[in-house]
Design goal:
Blueprint (H helix, E strand, L loop, with lengths): L1 E10 L4 E5 L5 E4 L9 E9 L7 E11 L2 E3 L6 H8 L6 E5 L5 E6 L5 H10 L1 H10 L3 E7 L2 E7 L1
Parallel strand pairs: 6-9
Antiparallel strand pairs: 1-2, 1-4, 2-3, 4-5, 7-8, 8-10, 9-10
């Protein structure tokens, strides 16, 4: 039996694939209990006999989605200041007051929009948000700076 927080990475009518957001272990569900790709589950799973290569959901304590959205707002002064002290390709993680984190990436100026879009589309962004136990992710960008805000 395995209890934890899982991100649904693939879902079909008859099966689904989930990833443990803490351990990154990937598990295949032998049937789909009504989940969709992108759902975050706090659940208990158990291996299905006799081979125990697929899993079944025993209990779901919570099911939610965590939206990841690109904001029209620019990065904050703090985020721009952090980026100014970094080299291109660097990442700084800062805790937020309360719950969450802010990640500041310094990217080539001509690749800013692509980098922000990659963060929005990256499954790892949702997995990190689930691990941080936040409710939404906001991505802000301007020339050379991408700020990823994991928010309560």
């Amino acid at each position: 039996m395995k209890t934890g927080r899982f991100l649904v990475t693939h879902a079909e009518a008859e099966s689904a694939v989930v990833r443990d957001v803490e351990e990154t272990q990937v598990l295949t569900l032998g049937s789909n209990p009504g989940v969709e790709e992108g759902d975050v589950l706090d659940a208990t799973l158990e291996p299905e006999p006799p081979l125990e290569v697929t899993w079944t959901v025993v209990e779901v304590e919570d099911r939610r989605t965590i939206p990841v959205e690109r904001s029209d707002e620019p990065p904050t002064k703090q985020e721009r200041d952090i980026a100014a002290e970094q080299d291109v390709g660097d990442l700084t993680k800062e805790p937020r007051a309360g719950i969450g984190e802010i990640h500041v990436l310094t990217v080539p100026e001509d690749e800013t929009d692509d980098a922000a879009a990659d963060v929005v589309d990256d499954e790892a962004t949702v997995a990190r948000a689930a691990r941080l136990d936040v409710n939404r992710v906001e991505v802000r960008a301007e020339a050379g700076v991408v700020a990823v805000r994991y928010l309560p």
